[in-house]
Amino acid sequence: MSATAPQRQPAVDAVFTALSDPTRRRVVELLSQRPSVTASGLAQELPITRQAIAKHLTTLVDAGLISAAHEGRETRYRLTPEPLAGAMRWMAAAGARWDERLARLAQRLAEQP
Amino acid sequence: MAINDVAVRREVVLPVDRETAWDAVADPAELATWLASEVELEIEAGAVGWLRWEDGERHPAMVEEVVDHRRIVLRWSEEDGPETIVELVLDDVPEGTRLVVLELPVVQLEAVGALLEQGPRIIGGSSPGARGPQMVAALA
Q1: With an 8 Å Cβ cutoff, are B107 and A90 in contact?
Q2: Which CATH number is B21's domain given?
Q3: A88 touches chain B (CB under 8 A)
Q4: Residues of B (7-46) whose Cβ lies below 8 Å from A
Q5: Which domain holds residue B94?
Q6: Long-range contacts made by residues B115-119, C-beta under 8 angstroms, separation at least 24?
Q7: What residues make up the domain containing A44?
């Protein structure tokens, strides 16, 4: 018997990686409350350096969770939540699968003499 | 927002002692009655095999860790989802045995592991007497 490595899902993986960091989750949260932000604007609200914010923004852009648009001399970032839906769909589906499995297990054990 | 907000966690109290509950989660024939439609995977650390889900496909799975009568850690992917780590933990409760399940995408665990400078596997090193899911403890 042979087993191959489970296939990776790059899009969902990138989203989960992006969301594994509390600062990036905070940025996503802030962006859900306003139309757009700049890196300098975020630097005034978050207790980290502008350079660190720039790195987090790049990760979020790469995961497709936010988009960057140059407006004059600044770059504005906006939430593009579609990839989030994929991650949320996985969580909802996985949760539903466990609900079914555990119900089957509990029923089976309850029926045992 | 806690890190395990992006993990799936479920628990159920089974009306049986831990010995019986362990058989239900560690015997492939028993697993095939509730976890998947077909299970070809010995529950031993390092074992590699497959599970057949409702979609009819065989999906590779492996056993990362086993603590006898207490805890099983699996790694698998199913349908269109990410590769995930699944932890099953049994605990004695007055009504029987509590089973806690935690499923978490591997990439997320790796990211947290790197953050904690413990490498990608942060769920090793538990003792047989450990209570509660180790991943939950590590991620809290």
Answers
A1: no
A2: 3.30.530.20
A3: no
A4: 8, 10, 12, 14-16, 20-21, 24, 33-35, 40
A5: 3-139
A6: B115/A20, B115/A21
A7: 10-111
- Residue A62 near residue A55 (C-beta atoms within 8 A): no
What CATH number does the domain containing A47 carry? 1.10.10.10
Residue A3 belongs to some domain of the structure: no
Q: Is the pTM of this model over 0.80?
A: no
On whether the CB atoms of residues B26 and B72 are closer than 8 A, the answer is yes
Q: d(Cα A35, Cα A76) in Å, to the nearest integer?
A: 10
**Is residue A71 situated within a structural domain?**
yes
pLDDT one-digit tens code per residue, A41-94: 999 999 999 999 999 999 999 999 999 999 888 999 999 988 888 788 888 889
